[in-house]
Design a protein that fits this description.
Structural class: alpha+beta
Number of helices: 6
Oligomer: single chain
Distance between the termini: 32 Å
Shape: globular
Order of helices and strands: HEEEHEEEEEHEEHHH
Number of strands: 10
Helix content: 25-40%
Length: 263
């Protein structure tokens, strides 16, 4: 089934339905169809990417696909199926749309009253509403989010907002919007700091070690056409540091730890 979805994304006819107006880059929802199969997707053409001061121009779609390849290498299924392909507005990233009816209503990351943090949640940052009442930015302590926190540290995700985390009714947790990842400098910005400084679970460490080895072979070769050689090497170095420390990452001094807005 997964191979069929990737084939649909790569080769299906693509018909644009509309634009997601809140996105900073051109982000379109489209309908795909191929041999009786159909699905919705997110299509981000390279020509619609807004230039950034710290990332090379025209590389965000490739970084999204690179993030998918690393996700697949972990076996955690964090990033929905993603391809690079041509489309009505030229080459770009095409990713399976997670339908609203499949998503859970209850968020896994939220601002909650300071004295009513849900059981099992981790506090991240203190906040106040417009009337000065105390709130806390917090997230659930579920294993899927812990794996996502490790994954974000590996790809150096500079924009893990709460809205980029999609939880489905069948228990899956997906992450989307990975265009600003893989920079050689430490740029991790995330709302998933609840495990900062805590020991990495042994299972996650085993996965990291395997992915690190894969980056020296076929996975590294595939990423080489999407990000620079220096960025591939920096990804390996981040894995090595995580394994050497044996701990979830902590915020880097001198760099904003939280994306804005957080949700």
């Amino acid at each position: 089934m997964a191979a069929d979805v990737v084939d649909l994304l790569a080769h299906g006819s693509l018909s644009i339905e509309g634009r997601l107006v809140d996105a900073s880059n051109t982000t379109l929802r489209a309908e795909l169809s191929l041999d009786g199969m159909s699905a919705r997707c997110v299509y981000k053409p390279v020509r619609g990417e807004r230039p950034l001061w710290d990332f090379p121009e025209g590389t965000l779609a490739g970084r999204e696909f690179a993030a998918y390849l690393v996700s697949e290498a972990t076996g955690w299924g964090i990033v929905p199926p993603t391809v690079l392909r041509d489309g009505p507005l030229g080459p770009g990233m095409c990713q399976l749309w997670i339908d609203e009816e499949r998503q859970r209503d209850e968020p896994l990351v939220d601002f909650v009253p300071g004295r009513r943090i849900p059981p099992g949640w981790h506090r991240v940052a203190a906040a106040r509403d417009e009337n000065g009442r105390p709130y806390v930015l917090a997230h659930a302590g579920v294993p899927q989010l812990a794996r996502m926190a490790v994954y974000d540290a590996v790809i150096n995700n500079a924009d893990r907002k709460g809205g980029h985390i999609l939880s489905t009714v069948d228990g899956q947790v997906h992450g989307v919007d990975h265009g600003v990842s893989f920079h050689v400098e430490d740029k991790l910005r995330t709302v998933l700091w609840g495990w900062a400084g805590r020991p990495l679970p042994p299972a996650e460490s085993e996965v990291l070690a395997r992915v690190g080895r894969d980056l020296g072979g076929e996975l590294g070769d595939r990423l080489g056409g999407l990000i620079s050689e220096e960025e591939v090497a920096a990804t390996v170095a981040r894995i090595d540091r995580l394994l050497a420390a044996g701990l979830f990452p902590e915020p880097v001094p001198g760099w904003p730890a939280m994306p804005w807005p957080p949700i």
